[in-house]
Specification:
Oxoglu/Fe-dep_dioxygenase_dom; Jelly Rolls; four-stranded antiparallel beta sheet; binds fe (ii) ion; seven-stranded antiparallel beta sheet; binds 2-oxoglutaric acid; mainly beta; AlkB-like_sf
Amino acid sequence: MPGWERLSTTPLLARYQGVLGEPRASEVLDRLDASLDWQQPSLRLYGREHPIPRRQVWMGEPEACYRYSGRDFMPVAWDPEILAIRDRIATLLAAQGLEVTFNSVLLNRYADGHERMGWHSDDEPELGQDPIVGAVTLGAERPLRFRWKHGAGEPFNVWLPHDSLLLMGPGCQTLLQHALLPRRIPGLRISLTFRQIHWPAGNVGGISAPGDRAPTES
Ligand SMILES: O=C(O)CCC(=O)C(=O)O
Ligand SMILES: [Fe+2]
């Protein structure tokens, strides 16, 4: 049943199911999998190079470049369909009272449940004071795990079904960390995490990518 489900108010966390509808959502998944130039850069952790445990594409406005493991990455140009998805999400968020203009998206490709992303917050200065991130899931349903940065509070899972949108609204990146932990769940999953990079903002190289730090998979 399409519609918004409010999971938390402070911080604002909400999930929408049925973003694109079928068969479009499955067609987009197949096409992105087959046609994007998926990258697997290495990160330098504790003096050693480690390929990230997933693949990714950084896409957006030409000025939305980012720094990753000491290197600058330029975004690839918008794919017209991803631009259409961005606009769809902006409409959905506007209905939640949020005016956002996403100028970039990090696409993450997890071949199966072994592939993952470590604990992080999307709180780089280039994302501004209290960033809003909209994350679309296509493919295998997996849980995004959240834990509180300060004080008590139980960690919790948010399950992300195919063709869903997760809104990480105000407070999410300051109060919580999130991770896509490895799980015995078969199947390809692609997420599209839309962001707004503020430019210029004393930006000397761009945004750091998520997971650009020692992953703590606990
Ligand atoms: O794949 C996901 O749903 C999470 C991705 C994520 O946290 C990110 O791109 O910052
Ligand atoms: Fe993230």
